[in-house]
Amino acid sequence: MSQVPTYFEADVRLDRNSPVPLYHQIAQPIEELILSGQLTPGTRLEDELSMARRLNVSRPTARRALQQLGDHGLLVRRRGVGTQVAPTRVHRPNALSTIFDQMKADGHKPSTEVLSYGASPANQEVSAKLEVAPGTNVTTIRRLRMIDRQPAGLMFDMIRSSIAPAATALERDSFESALAERGVVVTMARQAVSARKASGPEAQLLRIPAGSTVLSIQNVSYDESGKIAAYGEYLFRADRFALKNTLFAH
Length: 250
Prior knowledge:
- This protein has 250 residues and is of the alpha+beta class.
- The chain has helices spanning 22-35, 48-55, 59-71, 99-105, 124-130, 167-172, 175-181, 200-206, and strands at 44-45, 75-78, 82-85, 110-121, 137-147, 150-160, 186-197, 213-223, 228-237.
- It is built from eight helices and nine strands.
């Protein structure tokens, strides 16, 4: 008699002729089950070796699928237990505040100049960042953010062309508000913040000495379905911008 697994095995149908990477085809239906509540916190998932054997894929492919779910905050690995659906976070409700909104709230007058706007097929690197199939039409946008008519930040965004906001909308409002005009509501963003030196061209646009320290933010925005809406890389002058966070114990 075969033993019933004590972990969840996703019913995944793989299209090996599809341009969508296999790891994404594995991760996407599992993500949908977690976000819909069908997979509850604490549910154990099979490990990468079991998944690779069952789905007839390489172990690195299975590992990347689980890693993608972990990067989205949906899975956790516990020593002696394995991979589980992450606990639901209980937090104080708070609206997703944009940098544009923050500047307004602080009494400043933000404005935006679109430096470049164009579309091209996504290569492997771009498709991985947006989790789309290689060759998908992606629009890249470079903007200069001004505060009280003084340059404060450089903003680079990549987004599927099918939902890309118009350049004119970006010049009058925040990226998120311009997206909302296209019917896309951003409900969550993940950010990685660091410091680095500005290159010569970057410094020239920001009107700072070359090599000055700038604040660097990598931003991934998600829509209501949990799908990546846009990927952005932003640079801000350290003397014109401060990142403020309020943390709560839990």
